[in-house]
Amino acid sequence: MADMTADRTLFAPAFSLQGVSYSYSWRQGLIPALQDVNLVIPRGQFVAVAGSNGSGKSTLASLLNAMFRPSEGRVEVFGMDAADPAHLWEIRRRVGLIMENPDNQIVGPTVADDIAFGPENLGLPHDEIVTRVEAALQAMDIGELAAVEPHLLSEGQKQKVAIAGVLATGAEAIVSDESTGLLDPETRKAVLDRFDELRRERGITVLHITHLPEEALRADRLLVIEGGRLAADRHPADFFSDLELV
Fold first, then answer.
1. In this structure, are residues 38 and 212 in contact, taking their beta carbons and an 8 Å threshold?
2. pLDDT tens-digit profile of 92-147?
3. Which of 30, 78, 210, 229 has the fewest C-beta atoms lying within 10 Å of its C-beta?
4. For the chain, first and last CA: distance in Å?
């Protein structure tokens, strides 16, 4: 008999949120961060996410990487229930999260060691790890930093290392939480170019949180989150042509 679960996972969208809400616990009680979000993101789509500070964008990113579990509703990642601990490792293998602050995800004693950390945890052969690290270094144009200790890097260089580390894992989806915020305009453009290349060449799904209109305009789709709710879901050009909504 055919494995229907495997078939469903194979053809499932990258992300599916069904009535998802999330609240943080605080002394005064629960503070809602996301409320009743329904959303489907197909594989291979480049999605930008915008919204004011505190609107729930980073909470959404953490749900898609299974760092958080929804308070209500269901999050599916490549057809897997993100609230099921049995799927945790596989989800984090397939979804790379790039944080706004690179210090939160740099762990290696040197740049090359840090980039190798993800592939090593996947149990890849040594030669494959070396190949992936070299490719990621070149993709981010930081080959000359391979032997440098991360604490000696600038903030922009650290962000390049964090992005390279995700690229080296071979993730099928990248969730970028304002990862270009510390980069200069030329490097920012290079990172977005790389995201687009990965989408076109490997079918990687990209969800990029940004405050910059020029970055959002590069996406296939723009989600706007306000007050924890999905306020808009449009093509970026359509959104920015609606002056009242903007």
1. no
2. 889 999 988 888 889 999 999 999 999 998 889 999 999 999 999 998 889 999 99
3. 30
4. 52
